[in-house]
Amino acid sequence: MKTPRTFLPLLAATMLLCISTACSDKSSSKLQPVLGSRSVNIIEKKGLQFRDLNKNGELDPYEDWRLPDSARIADLLSQMTLEEKVGLMFHPNIAVPADGVVKYDFTEEEKAAMANAASETYAGPIGPGGQGPAGGGMAMGQMRRTATAKSFIEEKHFRNILNNGVAPVREFATWSNKMQEIAEATRLGIPIMFSTDPRHGATLGAHVSGTQYFSQWPSKEGQVGITSARDTAIMKKFGEVVAEEYRAVGLHMILGPQIDVMTEPRWSRNMGCFSEDADLTTEMLAAFMDGAQGENVGPDKILVHLKHWPGAGPHEDGTGQWLTYPGNNFDYHMIPWKKGIEKGALAAMGYYSGTYYDSLNVNYSYHVSTEILYRQLGFKGAICTDWGVVSRGPLKPSLQGKTTLKDNMEMIINAGVDQMGSETNNQLVLELVQEGKVTEERVNEAAGRILQWHFKLGLFENPYVDPEAATTIVQSEKNQKLGYEAQLKSIVLLVNEGVLPAAENTRIYVDGIDKEIASGYATLVENPRDADLILVRTTTEEERSFQGFGGGMPGAGNRPGQGNARRPQMNPGQAAAAMNPFAAREVNIDFPAAKWDKIKTLARTGKPVVVAFNPAGSSCVLPSDLRNVVKGSIMIFDALDNALLDVVFGKFNPVGKLTFEIPSSMDAVRKQLEDVPFDSENPAFSFGYGLSYSSN
């Protein structure tokens, strides 16, 4: 029977169907799943329905949803060509464009340009549509100048695709369906698993930039803001919302959470983590996974992709080049990883850094990837490199700059890493197999680990979504309300010299805050000398344009549903550290002098100043004379102006507690050990610090 080009109705939605023990690892019962089909026939067996993905008119084991995943994977691998299996070992980028139209093939002009190109290497940003600088996003790795569905899905057999594009909800979901239709029509009908970098920060940035169509929560990439609330229930809700909104538009995996323990305050990605405390990190990770992935991943859940293996918190001098453990505290950084594996994580991302154990980048190290992660910790999933790791090389001084891309792939695969983020040159792996440098058994192992993702998510039964339903799910009133509650709870009150909460009739002067929003809370004045209170919102780092981590697109920023006007940027040291692992320079996290001078100028008016600090990447060293200059200080984590003002004017009593120490000086930062928590000398603000209006 040929299926209509619509979703099949659920058969016997409330009927429990008993499946024989011969068809499963243990006695079980399953419901007939909802099948989504656009081009393949439906096979009926004993009143049950199955998709004929390989178009042979028979029910193959990999098409039989009653069977255990292991049996389905084994059957599918037996039918796959080497080219198809190798395709699974790549995780490239295609971004949904704003109009939601799938780019299927190259134009004749594009084909001619590609024929004349010296190589596929493109070091510029990959933006919406997978093309060029217009999108602004990411500047790392060997990526195609342009990508099409035909080239990626049909020709290269890629089935794991990073989608960091931005489009309205209906267009986003429609694009996902069109891509799945193309995959369904291929020889074996293997569906696509779409991943994305985190999308639920109150303000967007990094690789996902532009209009915020998803519900808005604290923090740009990680969960440090939500963790400051010390509320596992809201963290679990966050995971549920992420899963709900992602699946609605056809996303299946979050490239996160970032479970690095932030023991080195200079590292530029600390604010993507949970905490400086491994146990708190673990507690919050478990709550997030309970919400996002659940006990058993299914069609209503997403997979987490834990990063960054092997715990990227303790970088030497915070530069992001070498992981170091002067306090012999490696096991401390393994605590979250053990919990994530225990709770069923099936994806891990290896970072850009190297270890002094073998002077290799962690993805090139058999010891780090295979011996520790798989053998010692018992990981059962697949490892994917971070984006651009292959192109950056093995880091080892004797090898750096002396290996080809093909050499790098050989080292990575044989180290035990299964998938390469951002790479597209599958021909090199095929050559490695033909030359006997990578065994087909190793390819089968990698492909089998990756296929777990597709089967666990239920994509072989139904990879399609309902675009109309998605418009009611994504950024729903319920989800927005939860996100705003989390923003409020994330805010940490550091200093209050009797000026907060401010009275409703207060005259305020604002800097860095949307004036239209502020006018809804108090009377605005244009001259700070006329104010009863001066309120400043600022980032803790210098605002410099930088293409890569920290980049952003202009926009309105503070209003729900709009873009990011004040995207924090990296300071020069952090930029160099993030993009050049061989940069020999100190990362300075002192609060920028020019910003502090401006605040002191405002304070000299004699009017009380309240400063809201938004940490952009690393922790920061706040000015030593902070308490002498300002009357109030607040730490926010990308919270919108509305949330900040709700706290300032007492509409919400602050409850947030710091999840990390704030060092007292750069000298104290230099003396602390990179892998040891809570060892900063006389911290300005300790871990767990936070005032409230009822207790201070």
Which secondary structure elements does this structure contain, and how are they paired or packed?
Elements: E1 17-19, E2 28-30, E3 42-45, E4 48-51, H1 69-79, H2 82-87, E5 90-91, H3 108-116, H4 149-155, E6 160-162, H5 169-184, E7 193-196, H6 224-228, H7 232-249, E8 253-254, H8 278-292, E9 303-304, E10 306-309, E11 322-323, H9 330-342, E12 347-350, E13 354-355, E14 360-361, H10 366-376, E15 382-385, H11 389-392, H12 405-415, E16 420-421, H13 426-434, H14 440-456, H15 467-473, H16 477-490, E17 492-496, E18 507-511, H17 515-518, E19 523-524, E20 533-539, H18 572-579, H19 593-603, E21 609-614, H20 626-629, E22 632-635, H21 641-648, H22 666-671
Parallel strand pairs: 5-16, 6-7, 7-8, 8-9, 10-12, 11-13, 12-15, 18-19, 18-20, 20-21, 21-22
Antiparallel strand pairs: 1-2, 3-4, 13-14, 17-22
Helix pairs in contact: 1-14, 5-15, 7-8, 7-15, 7-16, 8-9
Please characterize this protein's 3D structure.
The chain has 696 residues and is an alpha/beta fold. It has three domains: 17-79, no CATH class; 83-473, Glycoside hydrolase, family 3, N-terminal domain (TIM Barrel, Alpha-Beta Barrel), CATH 3.20.20; 477-671, Rossmann fold. Helices cover 31% and strands 11% of the residues. It is built from 22 helices and 22 strands. It has a six-stranded mixed beta sheet, covered by helices on one side. The longest helix has 18 residues, at 232-249. The chain is globular and about 80 Å long. The termini are far apart.
